[in-house]
Amino acid sequence: MSETSATPPALESPRSVSARLDAHDLPWPQRPWIMAAICAVAGLVFHLLVDRTYTEPHAPWRDASAAFVAISAVVFVLGVEIRRWHWAAAFALLWGAVMGLITWHSAGYNLNGSPIEWPFWSGILAVLVATPLFQTRRDVAPDARFWKLWQMPYARLHNHAWTDAVIGAAGLAFVGVTFLLVMLIGEMFHLIGIDLIRDLLRGEWFGWMLAGAAFGGAVGLLRERDKLVSTLQRLVMIVLAVLAPVLAAALILFLLSLLGTGLQKLWDAGFSTAGLMLGISAFAVLLANAVIGNGDEDRSGNRVLHGAAAVLAVAVLPLAIIAAVSMQVRIAQYGWTPERIWGVIAVGIALAYGIAGVAALARRRRDFDVALRPLQQTLAIGLMLLAAFLALPILDFGAISTRDQVARLESGAVSAEKFDWAALAFDFGPSGRRALQKLAASQQTERANLAKWALAAKNRWDLRGPGEVDAKDAAFAVRPIEERVRVLPVGAVLPPEFYTAMGEESACRTSACAVYVLGEGAVALIARGSDPRFFVAGPKPGEWRESYGVTLGAEQPQKTDPDLETATIELRPVARRQLFVDGKPVGDPFE
Description:
alpha+beta, five-stranded mixed beta sheet, 20 helices, about 5% strand, globular
């Protein structure tokens, strides 16, 4: 069901000079400049929010603000039209706020965690699906009753989705071309001694502004020529449609082969079977839609292509079933993790699309696409709502995973040494850390030591993977740093601040380290499996820093420019020092 357009065409509008596809969209010559300016400012603000050193503490509010600025700007420039532009502004700000909330929660969820986690990508998916839905509703709705999404014309919705993809990809390509051009111009002026452009390119703030301006300007230009974009979109769909028979034939052979080989070889392949099946399913849906087009008049008239689209639509279901079985096997073996929960959700979505394809073919057979289009529209709306819901901090996948993994540990399904302590410390959020604190108080010494080791780790790379830990290493790791460092020569004493600095060294966490005092304010650190590292006292009281390529305990040679015709040149033996362990030299000699 479709609705009439909300805004009638203006009388005597200059359509003869317009390159717009929709008769209701008047030319907007200033659009490229406005969009370029908006994105340039957004790029600068984004840089100011994310620009900080690695040593600075995490600031979730800055990450959230950066996400708000970036998402709002991109969604606005992609979806705005001069008519109902305030709708586009409200839509962009709403999704910017949602993504900011998601980023803020993700940034503070895990210890040292990145804001770019699974909820963030779920939110991005919701934005990508919601944008063409909004554009379609804006075009045809008589008012702002957005709950009537199911009554939108499919052809316009499908066209918006493909157009947004083409324009977005073209905009990103234009950004790359722009940087290449500016770099070449900078090198050209460098030849005559003018380095202004080269210096600007070295500044990250300029790079973000340039990228924003290029992307916004490109989107603005293409939106003003969407007739040309529509032609490009059709070309892309035609090219993709040609690939449909290839994938359809491959899927038929693959599924028939499974009847003889069984599924066991899929589990033994050493690759994520579920991920591969889901990826192929997504590609099958993409190619099937390229063939069936926006409507009956737009679908391919080639019977081979149309038959291939039917095969692809139906093949999604068995692929999703294989993915589901693979996920079930994996979960039975290793339990729940946030990644596996997201995987199960993805499998559910694939099953829904597979069932829709089979139902459409069963209902209309040759005209299966007529029944498939409204089902896909409903699925798209449901996918947007589901992705937005899952991205929000409502369900705690880390808590679910923590309960399951701790239950497996306590039941004996997994031993303490094979347990994934790093996941509990760094992947399962606050619930994982609380569980570690309880396990650290366990009466079982081995389990308690491993939990204390995980709690003391500053990052997940200080811990080993499941099955790689050793109870002795964990018991050693929880000892004070003073007991883990051997000081040489005998009788030498290290200042307390040196032990504080060494407490951050992952090399000394699970194995003994030896520190050889070379002189006042200079030491050599010897750790298992690595060359010696040299540390010197810093200029600030209590500071120790690593010395790279600097001679220790000797005067630095003075840089001179001697007269080689009169200078005294001689060969002298130079005494150097080198560390020996069990009589064998380690590392390079030093002065």
